[in-house]
From TrEMBL:
Official protein name in the record: ornithine aminotransferase
Organism whose genome encodes this protein: Streptomyces jeddahensis
Keywords: Amino-acid biosynthesis, Aminotransferase, Proline biosynthesis, Pyridoxal phosphate, Transferase
Transmembrane feature ranges: none
Keyword Amino-acid biosynthesis listed: yes
Pathway it works in: Amino-acid biosynthesis; L-proline biosynthesis; L-glutamate 5-semialdehyde from L-ornithine: step 1/1
Length: 415
């Protein structure tokens, strides 16, 4: 391959380009739908990433939970490497030898029956909405095109046109209409409002067991059990979006396990791909999933053997319960550390397992400013709305690493 040169004669290679140059080039050539912190990651392992200049950072965001097992977990990399040497893509025009095992593993992990394999989280959400509507027409007998789905205020379920149709975040919506009808929004964590919104047209209730983007909003004890009881009684489906909350993050395999409930449809994504490939799934009850018949829904990449191999390896990691237990143990350390900062730069925090939303005193700085200060301390976090910082380290983080991150947060807050 010959080296490509542009008009100044400089090689168009990414090697030897500084972080500052790469950030400038990205601003010129990549759509500005994100506002990344000024760090250019070139390598990563476990809980650590390294930038182009060789500076090391502790990753306290973990790809919004896509990296629950850290960067390049050896077992996941080995599974991906092995599969790269076998077969990577067949399309579902043919069977592949990895898909059945992946679906069996998910059934075993969740207690549900069948899997619809997709790629991104938004696709899993879209797929579940389609399944719920079809179930409403075919099983529940809702009149054609009248099905409604109840969602919660402050939700985040992805970025497609239909999904932003029922977002209440003006930044996510404005300029993207017209929107998909058929959604009703009720306040989160309000069972009476949910009950009032359900009627004969209702196909499903779609809820995040903990609202991540909203700032790690944890509902009151009894809410999830209440949603389960209510949906059961009303004959509507309970769809739990565990794309961010699931797969060990909160100290249990699923966040709904904190109230010992099982939804009818469970949405998984992010960590299911092991930080290697996009893998998502709708996992559900057989009688509900069975409304899909050949040709009615699909995905070229969904269920591909590479994704299935990595997803199966992710499920294997979760089988022993050690990540869940570690998330509980270190989650207590995280909560203690944050409690110690309340009144010293932190207004309040919410946490479950290794997942926390920290409301910083706006007088000290915006969430963005605090994130930038933490970056200079070698800690990667991300702000969410306003003055809230989200903390979600890899579940492989050590006690010492967690202590140092909490120490750095105290330092930048001037505690
Ligand atoms: C990230 C996320 C999604 C969307 O996943 P993508 O892979 O970005 O499409 C959906 N729901 C929740 C709760 C999420 O956190």
């Amino acid at each position: 391959m010959t080296a490509t040169t542009h008009t100044t004669g400089a090689p168009l290679s990414t090697a030897l380009r500084s972080s500052a140059e790469l950030i400038r080039a990205e601003a010129e050539t990549v759509a500005h739908n994100y506002h990344p912190l000024p760090v250019v990651v070139a390598r990563a392992e476990g809980t650590w990433v390294e930038d182009v200049e060789g500076r090391r950072y502790l990753d306290m965001l973990a790809g919004y939970s896509a990296l629950n097992f850290g960067h390049r977990h050896p077992a996941l990399i080995a599974a991906a490497r092995h599969q790269l040497d076998q077969v990577t893509l067949t399309s579902r025009a043919f069977h592949n030898d990895r898909l059945a095992g992946f679906a069996e593993a998910l059934a075993d992990l969740t207690g549900l029956d069948m899997t619809l394999p997709m790629n991104t989280g938004a696709e899993a959400v879209e797929s579940a909405l389609k399944i719920a509507r079809k179930w409403a027409y075919e099983v529940k007998g809702v009149a054609p095109d009248q099905a409604t789905i109840v969602v919660a205020a402050g939700n985040f379920h992805g970025r497609t046109t239909t999904i932003v149709s029922f977002s209440d975040d003006p930044v996510a919506r404005t300029g993207f209409g017209p929107f998909t009808p058929g959604f009703r929004t009720v306040p989160y964590d309000d069972l009476a409002a949910l009950e009032a919104a359900i009627d004969d047209t209702t196909a499903a209730v779609l809820i995040e067991p903990i609202q991540g983007e909203a700032g790690v909003r944890i509902p009151a004890d009894g809410y999830l059990a209440g949603v389960r009881e209510l949906t059961h009684r009303a004959g509507v489906l309970f769809i739990a979006d565990e794309i961010q909350s699931g797969l060990g993050r909160t100290g249990t395999t699923l966040a709904v396990a904190h109230e010992d409930v099982l939804p009818d449809l469970l949405l998984l994504g992010k960590a299911l791909g092991g930080g290697i490939v996009p893998v998502s799934a709708v996992v559900g009850r057989r009688d509900v999933m069975s409304v899909l018949r050949p040709g009615e829904h699909g995905s070229t990449f969904g269920g591909n053997p590479l994704a299935a191999a990595v997803g199966s390896a992710v499920v294997d990691l979760l089988r022993t319960g050690e990540f869940q237990e570690h998330a509980r143990t270190l989650g207590a350390v995280l909560a203690d550390g944050l409690a110690g900062l309340v009144g010293r730069g932190v207004l309040r925090y919410r946490s479950r397992g290794l997942w926390a939303g920290v409301d910083v005193d706006p007088a000290i700085g915006t969430g963005r400013e605090i994130s930038e200060r933490l970056l200079t301390e070698g800690i990667l976090v991300k702000d969410t709305h306003g003055s809230t910082i989200r903390i979600a380290p890899p579940l492989t983080i050590t006690r010492e690493e967690l202590d140092s991150a909490i120490g750095a947060l105290g330092k930048v807050l001037g505690a």
